[in-house]
Amino acid sequence: MQVWKVAAPVAALALALTGCSSGQSTTPSASGSGGVSGSLTVWNYGALDDSSLLTPLVAGFKAKYPDVTVNLVGQPADNYYALLQAAVVSGRGPDVFSMFPGGYQKQFQEYSLDLSDKIPQADLTATNAQYYSANGSTTSQVYGVPSTAGMYMMLYNKKVLADAGVASVPTTWDELDAACAKVVAAGKTCLGYGSQDGSGGFSSYLDWSYLVGAAEPLTTWDKLIAGTEPYSSPTIVDQVTRWGTMHEKGWTNPDVLTWRNVRTSFESGDVAMVMGGSWDSSWAQKALGADVAAAPAPFSPTPNKLLVQLPDNGYSISKEAANPTAAVAFAAYVVSGEGQAIVAKAGNVPSRSGVAVTDPVNNALLTQAKDESWTVVPMFDNFIAPTVNQALTSGLNQVLAGQISAKDAMAAVDKATAGLSTSERVAYHLGGS
Fold first, then answer.
1. Which residues of the chain have pLDDT under 70?
2. Which CATH class is domain 38-149+311-359?
3. In the list 28, 97, 350, 432, which could disulfide-bond 355, CB 3.0-4.6 Å?
């Protein structure tokens, strides 16, 4: 197993797949507006009110390029990809659109502009843009740029745990059971799950990276993705089964598929722990201040020391962009030192190496990961085809709700994987194989 170690506590982590090279930039001049003007349409994944990142990035871009009018459009997260697919296929897509690497971006590669010769190679390398590339290298076609190096993590309320008599955040299944028993006895919900957007399900991919990460090394992740190793193996089924018992034991809220108040209940101190990402720490701190902290999900028989991180949230440019010059200028700004400083100030973990993480919750988790030499693994859901991701997410939702068994859920994922075409199967070499 290839083990990636944390390199620095206050800089974005580099999960590099391949090396780097030099290249020529065709982006506008770094000083002044460089003749960039006109209108630029940018689609955001989710409502604009939920974006702590895009709005300040656009403000900084506008200050640099005052002759560009930027039209921001928030698209609902639950059907974002369907809307984007319809728009780009018809040639009426936005100039710039929110995109995530790996399998998410792969389905839009034929509609995305190659940026490998339009943005300096130094910037592409520094921000790990290879995750948006055709074959894991920034010298091949690059179909997007990452703005953040996001982390999946568990947010917890230190005061709620302490008031319930829990001395420290749980790190294993047994510690989780002991902690949740005390939290529930104190009249609180231990782990909150539910739907924030009304879609009838929760983001189970947050949990999955920890479930499979505690069960299998990255070399096996490659085999799962390729379909040469079954998801329905006893080790994985055991993990998912144990996870599903949280609902049976009463550690979660009863309506795990439909509860709309997960976030507000965590903010008010009625929920002890929630699954989330580094992008959630800002709103959590506004509500809870120093009482909120982050940790790995304790879905493991031994103390979980995994950091789930990937240059995740980014932007691609449509091949049919009405204003490609301004679109490229925006992408270049996102990965520049100036743009990445804005990313950090907005409470996110920047994707660019060497840019300080200013958010205290995120920085504390990165510091702990470095000090304790945690293993870094990527976000699993970014490397599987959409149909497999749908089967996985749906199955995990049903397992926690007590509707199907873990074995049946994983068998459905095996079936979805077996149904992929050759072109849909991608070898990401996550374990260095």
1. 1-34, 49-51, 197-198, 427, 431-433
2. alpha beta
3. 350
